[in-house]
Amino acid sequence: MATPSGIKYAVHLITTHFGDLVAKVCECLLRRGPLTLQATVRFTELTSSQVKNCLLVLIQHNCVQAFVLEQSVEHGDAAKVNTEYIALFDNIFHRWRFPKFLTIVSQNLDKQCIDLLEALLQHGRLTLKQMSDRAKSSQNEGDDVILDSVQEAIIKLLNARFIERCPASEPVLTNPTKQELNARKRAAKSGKILEEQETLEQRVVEAAAPPEALRFLLLTQTEPAAEGKGETSSPTVTPGEKRKHDALESEYGATDEQVVLWRANFEEFIRRLRHKACIENVKTRLDDGAVTVLKAMLEATRSAEKKVKTENSVPLSLSSIYEEAIKSEEGRNITFDRVRASLIQLSCPPFVIAANESYSIDFKKIIELAQNEEVESIVLKRYGKDAYRMFRLLSNSSHLLETDKIADAAFVEKKETPKILYKLWKDDYLHMERLQVTGAKRLQQFLLWKVNKNLIREHVLDEMFHAALNLSQRVAFELEQEQQLLNIPRDKRLSRLRKVRLLLESSQMKLDDAIMLFHDF
Fold first, then answer.
1. What pLDDT is attached to residue 33?
2. Whether residue 440 sits in one domain with residue 388
3. For 22, which of 18, 64, 73, 455 could close a Cys bridge (C-beta 3.0–4.6 Å)?
């Protein structure tokens, strides 16, 4: 959801990383949607050369995707084809999460892989040659040794799906069908503008994505054959897939691994962070055995997940779950019966769905419970215990409730109840409806209340983006202040800077975890 505060925060991040000029172009795309080069020049009032250079920077760092939307024209058989540019809202925010991504790799792979990913995060996109040249500048090994080590690190990262081939430079989007046009009209009438923009962004990303057979594939050059020709092989390719791969390579337009562009696979990192959030959420409710079983299920089904926001994992049998559980250090002492008992625990609340002797993780339920707890925590801190009890009552109710009934059920004084409910409604935490009933003597009016979870999550997310922007600006302010305190002894200045930065950056990390819960998961 590209909320108003979310757009401001995204522009702030781009400004911090790339300067005002690039941020101006990015803001134009975020606020106006996909634009051609000429339209961007007109709206930003910059020169064509400036806009082009800014777009190249944003594309290099995976913040903008170019695409072609075919529009038929009436005269002749020709078709008018315009290249448009769309800002990738999610990818912009991922820039703040680079330290989290590096931490994930450091927990799974070696230093060579960490350095390689860090280079990709810093430069956006690199070829195999560019990565090898970077390694040469920091090592004294021979060229062949460095190339082999870089290729080995890339293969490790590819096998873990931490990096991927870059998307097509200008994928072609066909004109929408009549059904899609009708859906857009209905969405516009109902005010669902944001959802439609996100749908277009998803369509562009999907159209640009390389074929799955190539996405995580690296071809390495082995020793020349007897005829003097190089032979292509890779640990990630089986011989039977060779001809299929060659056909895909030819179609995708890249045949030399030295010029294939690689980038970090943000999707995999967010998926792993989502799994971590699910584990932490379950850990607060159930015992270590249930958490071990959940980890085993996540590990066994991770490769089958096609998208980050999948609602349920693929089903697993009890035997498969047990086999995966005993692979981990904490699961080696677990028994078959203990796994069965843990699955029963996980089924209530329904974190795991059991059907036909198979079990699947209910991601949607786990995330929703975590979101509800986060919102309830905000209400408790901001409005007090009485407001918290009433909000929780309405959140768990599936229908409208009248003011007096809320007071009775939440044990709140009837005089205070309307004031608290009105305050929550005024701050967009509740939905209110007026009901007028004609009685025997006079017209009576009742106020009915409920929680609209979709709207409130969008509202809370916008507040979080606003808070993240304030925190980021505060960090920048503190750093600027430190530059002005040059007359203070160095040790005291650094001590103060360290304390302020640790506090603010820790708050930023926690706030970003909450943002991911509502936006990315």
1. 92
2. yes
3. 18
Look at residues 385, 380, 375 and name the one whose alpha carbon lies nearest to residue 463. 375
- The domain boundary residue, chosen from 394, 425, 451: 451
Query: pLDDT at position 191, please?
Result: 44
Rounded distance between C-alpha atoms, residue 269 and residue 97, angstroms? 10
**Token pair in block for residue 518:** 């509502």
Residues contacting 402, CB < 8 A, separation 6+: 446, 447, 448, 449
Residue 228 belongs to a domain = no
Rounded CA-CA distance 261/250 in Å is 16
**In the chain, what percentage of residues exceed pLDDT 70?**
81
Q: What is the pLDDT of residue 264?
A: 97
pTM reported for the whole predicted model = 0.85
Q: Exposed (0-12), middle (13-18) or buried (19+): which is 150, by Cβ within 10 Å?
A: buried
Radius of gyration of the chain from its Cα atoms, rounded to whole angstroms: 27
Q: How far is CA 212 from CA 60, 63, 401, in A?
A: 22, 22, 50
Model confidence at 61, pLDDT cuts 50, 70, 90, reads very high
36-40, 144-148, 316-320: range with lowest mean pLDDT? 144-148
Quick: pLDDT tens for 31-46: 999 999 999 999 999 9
Closest CA relative to residue 254, chosen from 202, 307, 301, 217 = 217
State which H helix or E strand residue 85 sits in.
strand 79-87
Q: CA 52 to CA 38: how far, in whole Å? A: 10
For 72-78, the CB contacts below 8 A with 24+ separation are 72/175
Residue reference for tokens 């400004």: 15
φ, ψ dihedrals at 163, nearest 5°: -130, 165
Query: Per the domain annotation, does 493 fall within a domain?
Result: yes
State the chain's mean pLDDT as an integer. 84
Residues 154 and 255 both lie in one domain: yes
